[in-house]
Amino acid sequence: MSEHPAVPAAPRTIHHPVDRTARALAALALVVTLAAAWLAVDARIGVHSMESSAGGRLAELGVESSQARSALGQVQASLREAQARIGELESRVADTQEQRVALEEMYRDLARSADDRVLSEVEQMLVLASQQLQLAGNVRGALAALQAADQRLAHADKLAATPLRRAIAQDMDRLKAVPQIDTVGMAVRLDGLMRQVDALPLVIAQTAPAVRVAARWRSSEDRGFTRAARDFWEEMKGLVRIRDMETPDIALVTPAQAYFLRENLKLRLLSARVALLARDEPSFRDDLREAQAWIAKYFDTRAKATGTTLAAVKQIAESPVAIGIPDINASLAAVRTARAAREKK
Questions:
Q1: Model confidence pLDDT, tens digit, residues 144-197
Q2: Can you tell me the distance from the alpha carbon of 206 to that of 214, in angstroms, rounded to the nearest whole number?
Q3: Which has the closest alpha carbon to 221: 212, 230, 232?
Q4: Average pLDDT over residues 59-87
Q5: What does 220-282 look like in DSSP terms, one character per residue?
Q6: Average pLDDT of the residues in 219-224
Q7: Which structural domain range is residue 216 located in?
Q8: What is the pLDDT of residues 293-313, one digit of tens each?
């Protein structure tokens, strides 16, 4: 038998104590590194969270500051408003005190006697009638006040007011002789004329002639090329118009100018209405004269609406506006003389 060669034995690993210590230190260092990294990440997350929280808090503080400023502004506005109301209330209190003093004085005057009270009432009626005449020219209102004063004196049997009633009767006769002016009716007619201005036809109408309208209606029955050619021919013919005008100096206005012409005519009529209510006869007649001139120049006077409007404006322009209104100074002087005589007694 052959002998097999001897197999060398595997070398035995010898664990030195220094290697185990190094491995332990490396593991410990790894653990420390991981712990440090975790602490760094946690610290960074905490810092980021603190930054976010601080930013949100700062934003909230900014919003609260804005709200506080807005609330402060509202409080200041409310304070100013309250101060203004207090000032207004103080002014009203002062006015009320003055009125109370005046009323107390009036009550004392009226409490003296029945005759003095009647004379005071009559004087107030006459003052009201005088104001109606001077401020508004209201003859009817003044006449009604005089009639009420005369009736009040007629019921005072003990009061010797014959001279006063005679003066009132004379003033009433003078007011009855004044011609009556229908101011309200004239104002209503001017309002109606202002509404009719938009319907008045101009001298040169902005609409197409009747021949062109009829041609367009006929062309609507055609089809295709024939209709297109006819429409083109009608438009070409519409570029130039030849019209026979009765007056060579006729005024031509564009559509935009026509709009402003009508608006200016309305303003003229409105100005005449204001002058009528103010009894300003020169301005009233000037405005209506200009309105007549514009209607005759720019609008078709052959149209029925234009002729009616022109006639109405002319009729209103010829109506009297300002009349000589008498005063009632005789009645006022008589009642004041009667009161002075009562006070002397």
A1: 888 988 888 888 766 677 888 888 999 888 888 877 777 778 889 999 999 999
A2: 17
A3: 230
A4: 85
A5: TT--HHHHHHHHHHHHHHHT------SSTTPPP--HHHHHHHHHHHHHHHHHHHHHHHTT-HH
A6: 55
A7: 207-243
A8: 999 888 888 889 889 999 999
Are 316 and 192 in the same domain?
A: yes
334 and 226 in one domain? no
With cut-offs at 50, 70 and 90, classify the pLDDT of residue 10: very low
Query: What is the C-alpha to C-alpha distance for residues 38 and 44, in angstroms, rounded to an integer?
Result: 10
- Taking the complete model, does pTM exceed 0.70, yes or no? no
Residue 192 and residue 228: Cα distance in Å, rounded? 46
245-275 b/e (C-beta count within 10 Å ≥ 16 → b)? eeeeeeeeeeeeeeeebbeebbebbebbbeb
Phi and psi based region of residue 224 (left: phi greater than 0; alpha: psi -120 to 50; beta: remaining): left
- DSSP state at residue 134: I
Phi, psi of 273 (to 5 degrees): -65, -40
Alpha carbon dihedral 333, 336, 342, 343, in 10-degree steps, equals: -130
How many whole angstroms separate alpha carbon 337 and alpha carbon 183? 36
Asked if residues 211 and 234 have their Cβ atoms less than 8 Å apart, the reply is no
- The answer on 163 and 188 residing in a single domain is no
Whether the Cβ atoms of residue 331 and residue 147 lie closer than 8 Å to each other: no
Residue 3 lies in a domain: no
Nearest CA to 321 among 121, 147, 181?
A: 181
Same domain, 285 and 296: yes
Provide the domain count of the chain.
Answer: 4
